[in-house]
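ARCHIVE CARD
Drawer: 12
Card no.: 0347
Subject: one protein chain, sequence and derived structure
Cross-reference: see card 0346
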Amino acid sequence: MQKHQEGAEIVVAQPWKRPDLADQPDLKKLNDELHDLRLDAGLPSARAIRDRVGKDAQDYWIVNHQAVLDTFQKPDLPPWGRLELIARVLAEFARYSDVDAQVDRFKALWKQVVRETVAQASVHPPADTTASAGDGDVNDATAPSEGLPKQDAGAPSGQAAEEPPAGKETPANASQDSAQFNYAHESLKGLILNAAQALWHDKDALRVFLGVVRRSEGFVRMADAAEEQRPANATFYGVKSKEFEVDRSPARMELVTLHRRLDEHRLKRKWSFTDMEEQTGISSDAWIRWYTHDELPEREALVAFSHMASLTQEDHVLLLGLWDAAHDALEVQQRTASLPSSVNFDEAWTMRDPAAPRLWALAGVAGDNLAAYGPDLASGTAPAFVVAGPAKSGRSTALVNIARSLLASGAQLVLATPRPSPLGELADREGVVACFDQDNIGHDELEEALSVASAEEPVVVVMDDAEVLGECDAQRVLRNLLEHGFEEGIALVLAGDEDKLGPSYPWLGKAKRAHRGLLLSPQERHAGDWIGIKTGDSVVGRPLALGRGWLHLGDGKLMAVTVPR
């Protein structure tokens, strides 16, 4: 039990009574998971959940507090729209890192309950639950208005519905497939009517929406009626038609964040898309397209919106900052899509700048005209370059490319492979001064190997699995290298697991000062710290992709590259 404050009143937060669902195991699992999620969120009150969901453009509560309580306490399956909003709010209260994943989890549970319901022969598809305007929860209504055509939910698309003969009812032993189809059909009709009601005052948006509805012949009459007469009062949950769904892109999180912030300002002012056209001079069709397709609005449109909405300086800067983040993420996505699937070292070597300095290292290939990119280890903020990524992401392959390019330019190398690595196969190459293949490097041995270095004859230490050598005997030599390498003609290229490279190792921490490196399939946001740049959701958490990487050369720009194989 815990206490929290709502206004001036101290409220004791308690678990709510759970309904008896012993005979409905799937619904019981859904209900139990929902109660557990509220516990994770700190047991917020029904009104706190209602307030977080907020109001619609007509200033109605989207879900009132009694509907919240019913969702938890009634032995019925709640409407998905209501459950989705409550689950999202609770996941946000609980500070889950991936709120969408929690919502998807509850959607899967909700679908399972639907399948359970359909499978029970004694259960019919739910009847129309039209709510009156005075019942207090107008937002859970799926209320067709008077005058709209009646349609048999089981009628095939394109055929007119027939009224059953007087005195006859649908047989109780109707097939499961028919029951499931009826349920889906009724849910879709409710969604269409809710959307038409919400868009009623925005004729341009209503026209576009009903145009999509009319593509299905079975809904033409409904669309015509909804255009002539506003459906009964019901509030649109914000669920988008499947017609508008787009594939999840790496830039989706940045786009969703921008759209949500923009929509908050729009709904606060109760602006329709037509109002936005009048206010900003940007066509309502453009605003509708950006909204329904999760596209990036033009920056000029946001500037015009901010000006006409009289946003504060803080909100204006935040909105444009979100736009910049989404724009950059989309550019990264586009550049990644245009990269070659693979390239070998010899091909990549021909793409380099012939005038590249001796300590230039080949890290990857990118650009519209395919050029080779990499760091100049003789310049920058520190004589280092970091290759970071999880196991089996291709770190050793990237190191071999770097080592081969340095040898081809006439540099000398000291190799360190505390674990078996393809890098060790270069030990016999001309220009390799020494190769350390144990899990420790002696102070004197490394110092002797680097004694041949000079500004005219530089030496680069190329180290795989650097986390193994974090506390090696030669750590003082490595720390000195990172502090004075430019004067002594020495540089360091290291690779390691993003989760095991320990900032507690002093010399490893100094490698961060270079602010450059190559990320391979990064899984955690902190991986970007090793190369001096922040990494967002458009970069991290993707499946392992051999041959692809993210290159930062200290200029603040993250470049998608193909790593030679």
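Annotation on reverse: The longest helix spans residues 313-337. Residues 1-12, 121-182, 233-247 have pLDDT under 50 and may be disordered.
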